[in-house]
Automatic annotation (TrEMBL), chain B:
Species the sequence originates in: Natrialba aegyptia DSM 13077
Protein name (record): Phosphate transport system permease protein PstA
Keyword Transport belongs to the record: yes
Domain ABC transmembrane type-1: 77-285
Stretch forming the signal peptide: none
MF terms (GO), sorted A to Z: phosphate transmembrane transporter activity
Amino acid sequence: MSRDTTASLPTGLGRRDFLAAASVALSGGMAGCAGVFAEEGNQVNIAGSSTVFPVTEAIASAFSEENPTVNLSLSKTGTGGGFGNFFCAGRTDINNASRAIADAEIEQCGENDITPIEFQVATDALTVVVNPEADWVDCLTVDELHDIWRAGGAERWSDINEDWPDEEFELYGAATTSGTFDYFNEAIIGEEENHRSDYHATERDRTIVQGVQGSEYAMGYFGFSYYSENPNSIKALSIDDDGACVEPSIETAMSGEYTPLSRPLFIYVAKESLADPAVRDFARFYMERAATDLVSEVGYVPITEDQRDENVSKLDEAIAEVTE
Amino acid sequence: MAADTQEASVDSGFGQISRTKDVAFRLLALAATLIGIVSLAALLLNVAVDAVGWLDWGFLTNPPHPNPNNAGFLPALVGSIAIMIMIALVTFPLGVGAAIYLEEYASDGYLTRFIQLNIANLAGVPSVVYGLLGLGLFVGLFNIGYGSVLAAAFTVALLILPIVIISAQEAIRSVPDSQRQASYGMGATKWQTIRNVVLPRAMPGIMTGTILALGRAIGETAPLIMIAAPTTVFGVPNSLLSKVSAMPLQIYNWASYPQTEFQYGVVAAGVVTLLVILLTINSVAIIIRNRYQQRT
């Protein structure tokens, strides 16, 4: 009996302690809630293209080391998904885009009183790849690419060139929600015809690499950075636009020789969000760093210093308008 | 000695066949056990070997980075812990409250049985469905921000609430009825009985169930994807409405990076971190259970 009471005493204390601790934690949580619901500060939200993702990730990581109190969030939604569901709906401050904003998206932003400002932050060389065993092909003309990827076009390698094997293509490409798809469609297929739909479509570039590695007769396309990380396991094709084969590389994209598949990459900043000091600081930081090695390290071409100066003055103008 | 021979003769009388079957079944059961254990050990070993050289102090304290050598886990780590704390604050009072009502107050009518049936079914609903509910309810209707700490915590809390309720009910049911009757016999009210007799006795079971449920919650990815939790977060959450990433989400994201260093080294380091935290939570549950059991 006496043992029982001594045993229950610490339990009682423990319970009281626990209740006290729980109530302190709860009231602390409530107080936190009250302060938090009033204001959401030091938060920068970014969504959009998975192609631009590594650039923004590199810059955000560097920014966060200097400004640890700012909470930056970054989502991969595809260019169109980012504009439609996040940026133009007022949920994010910045959208990554691997193509220019469409008219319908500008309209949608306008309905929600959001003014997108465009900044070019890098250049990409969209890369067409084949299996390393495919030794018959090193270079394709734009017309040949067009014939391979258009709806109702070539079915077999021998349809393009009689010397090539009489085997069917196995095609891997970007999904239709992707800015990469939009760009390839515009540059190679054109408006009169459609991109074929009987290919393996994916948002994950790694799937394309695995597919092309798996078959001698496969072909795929994606952003240059993914190729530059896997240069031995897949083979990049040179592209012949007007008589000369040009291989995809940071140098050829920068000099403008690699046409028509070198493309500008953008971020769009909501003008209204620039009123927030955290967004302002991050945008400034981004513009300055876009012309440095941070960008070439992740496999893209940095913008020139002239372009950077242009971006910075554009940004300063917008900031001046918002903060006045 | 005589007994031994007698037993042997009885054994052989039963037939040689049953003995072979006995051994065969034993081996079969052993094989079933070994397949699970061996594959688990192989997985852990494989991941641990891959993580060597990647899991260091820098990994635990840096933000994510596209270069695998600089990539860090801090925002996801802190994010997961923040979500966990909020989930515990939400599920513990709700889960225990519901269990007390169902066990101590509710009469055993059709309504109670209907509620009971629903809770049991809710525990088996796939997590992606709870994600959809969280998206509609917390992100859409209550508008507490996509991918925020609160939205993530409430959504996953709903997911594990049925498990917490069921385990708390079982703990309360296991308190002997004679102790309740003794308490009433001393003139105690129902509230006093629950507070002084039932809850202290049931607490180890309730705590174990809750902590194990939290262990399940920490690995959940699908509901977080559904409420549009960001792919990556830089900087630790600074308010309850901050966007938050969690460890499994960050691991999933890394697995799709082009560099093989990410696909093996960095992902493995993340997995080891997640497992260590999960095992810590589970061992805390075991310690709590043992401590309370020694007392009672």
